[in-house]
Specification:
single chain, 203 residues, mainly beta, Porin, 1 helix, elongated
């Protein structure tokens, strides 16, 4: 009876030992560098997407759950007909736009960490800070408008492991503006952010 009980306890501990071994052997932290393409037309590139470099740092909290923070910055000079910017100034003819994004996202891996190809779910908060310098119609004066958008971000992420420490990710992310929604329609509150990066994992 005791031997059978010990055998059952041992078998029940095998999955926990496997998880612990995966956690110990797998790299815990990762850093990535890539590009971000921000567009105001979800899942289709607009005529004037904002393309910027992007840096990411993250840490695995468990074998399938990670927390990551990314940052990107882009400055763009616009002509008066520029109207497809993800963050255009309202009622103005924009001539310069600077955008910073700071996504803080959780990453959940659907497949085992040892798989070479993995599909993840990303979700969390994104701060979009923009500084628009523009000239009003029929006026030579310029003004600067600074806005902060607090956004809910969700989307899939496709991850490929080249080796234990090197990999690549591609993610189309959809963000919904949670601030000042009464000033804009539903479509104007949606942004799509295509991201791609090469990352390096370490302990």
């Amino acid at each position: 009876m005791h031997k059978r009980l010990l055998t059952l306890i041992g078998l029940s501990l095998l999955p926990m030992l496997s998880v612990a071994q995966t956690r110990a052997d797998s790299p815990r932290f990762y850093v990535g560098a890539g590009a971000s393409v921000l567009t105001s037309r979800p899942f289709s590139l607009s005529d004037h997407p904002l393309v910027s470099p992007m840096l990411t740092v993250g840490a695995w909290l468990s074998p399938r759950l990670a927390l990551q923070i990314s940052g990107s910055a882009i400055g763009s000079t616009n002509d008066p007909s520029y109207s497809d910017s993800p963050v255009p100034p309202l009622g103005s003819n924009g001539n310069k736009l600077t955008v910073y994004t700071l996504p803080v996202l959780l990453r959940f891996a659907f497949l085992a960490p040892t798989k070479r190809f993995n599909i993840d779910a990303l979700g969390g908060y994104t701060l979009l800070h923009s500084n628009s310098v523009f000239s009003m119609s029929n006026s030579s004066n310029t003004q600067s408008v600074i806005t902060n958008r607090h956004m809910l971000t969700l989307g899939p992420s496709f991850r490929y492991l080249v080796s234990q420490h090197l990999g690549a990710t591609l993610a189309p992310l959809l963000s919904v503006n949670l601030s000042d929604t009464h000033h804009l329609g539903f479509k104007q509150n949606l942004l799509c952010n295509y991201t791609g990066a090469i990352y390096y994992s370490f302990d």
